[in-house]
Structure formats: structure tokens, C-alpha cells
Specification:
The chain is an alpha+beta fold. The chain has helices spanning 2-18, 23-33, 57-65, 71-81, 100-108, 180-184; strands spanning 40-45, 48-55, 84-92, 114-118, 123-132, 139-147, 160-164, 174-178.
């Protein structure tokens, strides 16, 4: 399971570097990067900038196939990635640096700090997350993955909140509201 998630994360990372090869890929990236569409959100809390972005299934598919897709490969890859909801979380703070004791927590202990709260009242815990190296001591990036509910009522099929319950940077929990309507408007391949 963790190997599959790691492969998915590597694929997504390579997509960020090369997804502009496809016209459809450009449309998807432009849409999800535009804060007006509700897919990319950010807030400031206690000097910390927090950004969250939903990463749609088709973006994962593009990363796997480097923009060269036929309908069979598209359908197969969508099935593979569609069981999970993916988010990119970025924390930036020029003043606060986590204590050294928190460094391993950032790499291995955040799983319980992320969850999705659905409109139907259900809570989906984080399945897996990966810290993404940035080379910037004030910037922390994570790919956060949640398993979608099997009853069809999970995230992306209704409004939900992405919640980060901080234990490292000294801020209160933050929640980002995602609307089903905004997710439905993401361009498709």
C-alpha cells in the first residue's frame, strides 16, 4: 500500500515538472491553480502561510503517461487513482522554525493531524502523506492522501473540509472548504 502511494507521489511530482506538454494538462493546471475556482486555497495564521490544493485524478493520469494517452490507458489509470483524494499542503513561515524534536514529527507523525470532514458528518482520516523536499528551510510541502469512501458519498462527491490540526507551528487548527460544484468544474481529459 505504501509502495503504491509512493509511486503515485513520484508520478505527481514528475507531472508538476512536465504536465504542460498537453493542452488538456495546461487547462487542468490553470484551473486548479486559480484561487477563484476554489481548488487552490490559502490563509495566513500567526505569521504562517498555509496553502492547500486539491489534485484531481486526471492530473495523476497525465503524470503517469507523460501526456500520451489512449482511451484504454485513460480508463485504466483513472480507476487506479480514483480510489484516493490527493491534496498538496504547503506551509511557509519566515520566522518560526520547528524545534529539532519536531523534525521527525513532520516526516512521520502528521498522519493524525490531517482529515476530511464531509458534509454528511463522516470524517475520513489521512491514509498516507509524504513530505516533499523543497530546499527552503522555511517552506514545508506535503502530499496528503485520503481514501475515498466506498459508499459513493466520499470527498469530491459532496462538499467537504480539509482540516489540518497543527501541533508543530503554534497555530490553531485550520480548515479549508471545498465545494462539490468547484470540483465538478475541473477540466477533464
Amino acid at each position: 500500500m505504501k509502495t503504491l502511494c509512493l509511486l503515485i507521489l513520484l508520478g505527481i511530482s514528475s507531472l508538476w515538472m512536465s504536465c504542460n506538454r498537453s493542452g488538456n494538462g495546461r487547462e487542468i493546471v490553470a484551473y486548479i491553480n486559480d484561487p477563484r475556482n476554489g481548488i487552490f486555497q490559502e490563509i495566513q495564521r500567526t505569521g504562517l502561510q498555509v496553502q492547500v490544493q486539491y489534485i484531481p485524478t486526471d492530473l495523476q493520469v497525465l503524470s503517469e503517461h507523460a501526456g500520451a494517452l489512449n482511451s484504454k490507458a485513460l480508463d485504466s489509470s483513472r480507476k487506479q487513482y480514483d480510489s484516493y483524494a490527493y491534496f498538496k499542503l504547503v506551509l511557509t513561515d519566515e520566522q518560526v522554525k520547528p524545534r529539532e524534536t519536531d523534525a521527525s514529527y513532520l516526516d512521520f507523525g502528521l498522519t493524525d493531524d490531517f482529515y476530511l470532514q464531509l458534509n454528511n458528518g463522516n470524517v475520513i482520516p489521512c491514509t498516507f502523506y509524504q513530505r516533499i523536499p523543497t530546499g527552503d528551510k522555511h517552506r514545508y510541502e506535503f502530499m496528503v492522501v485520503f481514501e475515498k469512501e466506498t459508499d459513493g458519498g466520499g470527498p469530491v462527491r459532496q462538499d467537504f473540509r480539509f482540516v489540518y490540526a497543527d501541533k508543530v507551528f503554534g497555530m490553531d487548527s485550520v480548515a479549508f472548504n471545498f465545494r462539490h460544484k468547484d470540483l465538478q468544474n475541473i477540466p477533464q481529459l
